[in-house]
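User: ok so my PI wants both of these folded by tonight, can you help

Assistant: No problem, let's get them done. Here's the first:
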Amino acid sequence: MEPVSTWTVFGILLITLITVCSVKVVALLYQELTYWKKRGVPYMQATPLLGMSWQVLLGRVSFPDYLSFLYYSHPDAAYIGGMENTVPLVIFRDPKLIREVSVKYFDHFPNHRSFIPEEMDPIFGRNVFSLLDNRWRDMRNTLSPFFTSKKMRFMFGLVSKCSHDFVDCLHQHPELCSMVDIKDYFRKYTNDVIASVAFGINLNSLNDPENEFYKAGTGITDLTSFIRMIKIMLFRLSPRLWRMTGLSLFSKSGMKFFYNVISESVRARDEQGFVRLDMIHLLIQARDREKHQSVTNIDDIVAQTFIFFFAGFDTMSTLLAYLTYELALNQDIQEKLREEVDHYMTKENEEITYETLSKMEYLEMVVSETHRKYPVVITDRVCTEKFELPPAGPGYNKTTVNPNDSIWIPIYALHHDPKYFPNPDKFDPERFNEENKRNIVPYTYMPFGVGPRMCMGNRLSMMEAKIVTVHLLRKFFVLPNEKTKPVRFKKGGFALIPIDGLFCSFKKRDP
């Protein structure tokens, strides 16, 4: 018998390995393709291995449009099954079920899907959004005092100063007012507010757009570039491969800048003992308390202050841009709001107070309607304990959500469902007047998320939007111009980014 060559053995082993891998891949594909069908659940077929949102990541469709497509694919179903990178996904349509998973049975769905795990990014992975279970609860309890009524009153003065500086800069520079890209302007305002209330840094970015804080922030918060979309897709497909490549989702120079700024602020406060009642001070206090587990070192402090910036920078500027855009298009609404502002502010009393702001009911309605029409697109949950769902509708079966399965709550689609908000594309603040808001179906309006995981900064966000709107309308008329176009959302990314920008003009009011 002739001896078997080494190459023959290698060939047999290689063929065996390829065969085994092929069988496993086929089995995985079959499982994905038949997962919801076998369970008798209405579903949307995902692309095997890639999931349902790859078209968004590759810039083929906008996320709000794609989510609406999924939402209406089974208009009579309480929920819809899908897949996201081999992980079973349930998209909820029924407000009662949304309450079940986000409030009543929150202990079964306590976490978000971690965007980047802590072991891959010790800063982003440690923030309050990414933390899980008890670590999240501890950190939330640590941060909650920052958002009390007492702290809001203190921060009111800081936000009001930023707003004054912003509007005064516009008033003193007419060349800035004729053809305004309002999203860009409000990013500068939001940057200044966050720098002040969280970092203790005073800026005027509209007057000085080249400041390092603003430049670093714009680089880090831009998640719409093609390269960054590819990075996100690679991470979701194979975290292990991502770890091997050593890639970073965020600009390393930008992250280094924020780390150094926060570290230096903490060091200076520790050495000099000065106190400024901002977020960094709150976290330093938590670090210094004995047996405090949620904040133990500088990375924890950097993580929480960074997510405060990251979460507020783009979402807040987007809200303000769309609010101003709608005021430009709807002059009757703008005039009614201006009358309310003028009623509470006179030439003898140009300073708005915390108490006065809370009395402006129509302002509250306008901001609330902006949140309805232009909300965050989704919020999510991850199952940690088995949970049985009732049938999605007649002819369907009960099903079980298993640990690690994902839940999507389609906020944008619910806010635009004519069943809950008639004529949803119309900007109508009267939806939120005292009589009408009582008729809003619970868990169909969720501008800040829902349940214990909802956004902690909701009151600060509302205050920030209201103050600058008041100051703006006291000094200017907001007008459309030839570049003011109907909104079309940019393909790719996960936010409501207008393709053509949001343009208007500011015309000074008579003194």
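One down. Here's the second:
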Amino acid sequence: MAELPGAVLFACTLNAFRSPMAEGIMKRLYGRRVYVDSCGVRPEPERGPDPFVIQVMDEIGIDLSGFRPKSFAEMADTGFDLIITLSPEAHHHALELTRTQAVDVRYWPTIDPSAFTGS
């Protein structure tokens, strides 16, 4: 088994759909063994996570009702070993911010659920 990183950041565009879900799932799987957080390129803190995200995560026992979207700037003073980006915009932003740092940045292409309507 590969060694776990000490700190992981999930990043997407709004920090309202993909990255909060990834953060919640990883926290559930690894608990306090790994520090996990998430952020977005253009978060809307007043909006919070999407209500559908809260409902879906609640179905698997993960409470995101108190989640507040954060920006990359809010993460500036936190050191991460691994940044997993879930949108092209977040990936480019993470690469630009970490170009002089020893941080592993990985892109996991993930469809933006906000682009869809209906049930």
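The beta strands are 7-12, 35-40, 82-85, 104-107. Residues 11-111 form a domain with the Rossmann fold fold (CATH 3.40.50.2300). Good luck tonight!
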